[in-house]
Amino acid sequence: MSYLHAGLPKPMPRPDGLDAAYWEAAAQDVLKVQRCNACKGWQWGPEWICHRCLSDDVGFEAVAPTGRIYSYERVWHPVHPALQEQGPYLVALVELPQCDGIRMVGNLLGNPRQAVRIGAAAHAVFEHHADDDPAFTLVQWQLD
Amino acid sequence: MTRSLRGKVAVLGVGETTYYKRGGAPEAEGKLALQAIIAACEDAGISPKSVDGFASFSNDQNDPSRLAAALGIKDLRFANMQWGGGGGGGSAAVGNAAAAIATGMAECVVVFRALAQGQFGRFGQGPRRNAIFGDMAFTAPYGLMSPAQMFAMRVTRFMHDHGVDAAALRAISLASYHHAQNNPRAVMHGRPLDAEKYDASRWIVEPFRLYDCCQENDGAAAMVLVPAERAKETNHRPTYLLSAVSGSHYRAGASAHNTPDYATSCFKTVAPRLYEMAGVKPADVDVLQSYENFTGGVLMSMVEHGFCEPDACNEFFVKENLIAPTGKLPTNTSGGNLAECYMHGLGLNIEAVRQIRGDSTNQVPDADVALVGSGPMVTPVSSSIFGSEATL
């Protein structure tokens, strides 16, 4: 079950491998984000080095797929042909307090006209598109 | 400050083509660029052949070498492109041109922007590729891909943090449309907007309604910059650059909406440097041109340039405060990107110059200091301040 109508650009791992671990984990219902092996700080989106200590020993670590709404938007005007018949939809920016407050972008599942409260707790829902070419997984969010 | 652009460079001329709705230009973008440059040179009273440098921004596709060839320029000395998308480079391009002049790298630099969204693709549309990787892979598949969609969550968070009402955004739009009714160049000239029409307009993405969003246009605009000693070569009231700076805050460019300070127009580190170089304070600013990609960006820009406390927006952002000639801070007096033309904000720098000259169609009496904020919410952003001879 996909939240948005089919036909939007499909996410692919970068050819240089920087974010491969994130996409591979998502396909297995696991949320992984970057963590520096030297200073143990978290960071997102992916970078080649740690922005704090500049170590290049940066890995990916599984985290609890939970967060809270940092901001959100309800989109009405379609800017892509795939969304012409979509109607309004919600995009959420979810903060992960357990990972130095990094943020993830996803859709907020449920009624697109629902009232959204900044600060509300949410959890990740893995939306698999295994039969697509290329196959991919979106990390969506749902209020607790 | 010993190293400064203050008062070292003058704006000798400004010009633009007719401004069109996207797709409406009868000429090719490259020809529009040449027309605007020639118009600015005519306004400056110089031959285009005496131009020796070009500065632009936002990946303008009109290459300075081709422009110089087309114009028959004998000695090209400076060809500069400010990195960064959107209109964040509008004032930076002015600053880059001025820096070249102040340091003797060039004598007469044209700052220009040509844009035919009808010919080369619209900014307000999402990517059409089947698959996507990199930073956009974390946003576009969720239907987050147009500029309005990229910035709405910043504004929502700011409004949440500071209790800002939707009416504050509306006031910004009403002021731009108000000014456009007196400006024959404005694409929205003859198309007034009132609160009722605004409130009835459709949502693009909350909190932005249709009239909170800039236009998409075709056209070109240009400015001619020369050393300050040449400021009086024309009959215009001499207009000097007092400051132009650019930049952005800590990790403003972190991908997937991860900049630590999120609910910002990105001017917090830029505005203090702007005022320091210019030697003026917010209270000295007579007239403001503040880039409207979206009204929420204007609101945060004005807060971060020190015109309004973040928790006082509902009182400050009313139409009466923002309109010329009587408002506390007349803002976007040409109609700006919302209602004059979206020339990626270069028109805002031109309008600031017209205010100092006394030539605006919505003139603020005795305007001596005009500030321009370019491209809120992108990175890098930039700002500039122009002044009359009295400010030197």
Walk me through what this model shows.
The complex is a heterodimer of chains A (144) and B (392). In chain A, the strands form 2 sheets. Chain A has a 5-stranded antiparallel beta sheet. Chain A has a 3-stranded antiparallel beta sheet with strand order 3-2-4. Helix content of chain A is 6%, strand content 39%. Chain A is built from 1 helix and 9 strands. Chain A has one helix at 20-27, and strands at residues 10-12, 32-36, 42-43, 58-62, 66-75, 89-96, 102-107, 121-129, 136-143. Chain A has one domain. Chain B has one domain (9-121, 213-391): 3-Layer(aba) Sandwich (Peroxisomal Thiolase, Chain A, domain 1). In chain B, helix 6 packs across helix 9 (295-304). In chain B, the strands form 2 sheets. In chain B, strands 1, 2, 3, 4, 5, 9, 10, 11, 12 and 13 form a 10-stranded mixed beta sheet that branches. Chain B has a two-stranded antiparallel sheet with strand order 7-8. The longest helix of chain B has 16 residues, at 29-44. Chains A and B meet through strand 1, strand 5, strand 6 and strand 7 of A and strand 6, helix 5 and strand 7 of B.
Task: Report a brief summary of the structure.
Chain A has one helix at residues 20-27; strands at residues 10-12, 32-36, 42-43, 58-62, 66-75, 89-96, 102-107, 121-129, 136-143. With 144 residues, chain A is mainly β.
Identify the strand order in the major beta sheet of chain A.
7-6-5-8-9
Largest sheet entry of chain A: 5 strands, antiparallel
| Shape category of chain B | globular
* SSE run of chain B: EEHEHEHEHEHHHEEEEHEHHHHHEE
Order of helices and strands of chain A: EHEEEEEEEE
Q: Helicity level of chain B, as a percent range?
A: 25-40%
Proportion in β-strands of chain B: 15-25%
Shape of chain A: globular
- The overall average pLDDT of chain B, rounded, is 97
Q: Please give the most extensive interface between any two protein chains, plus how many residues each contributes.
A: A-B, 43 and 45 residues
Overall residue-averaged pLDDT value of chain A = 97
The tally of strands of chain A reads: 9
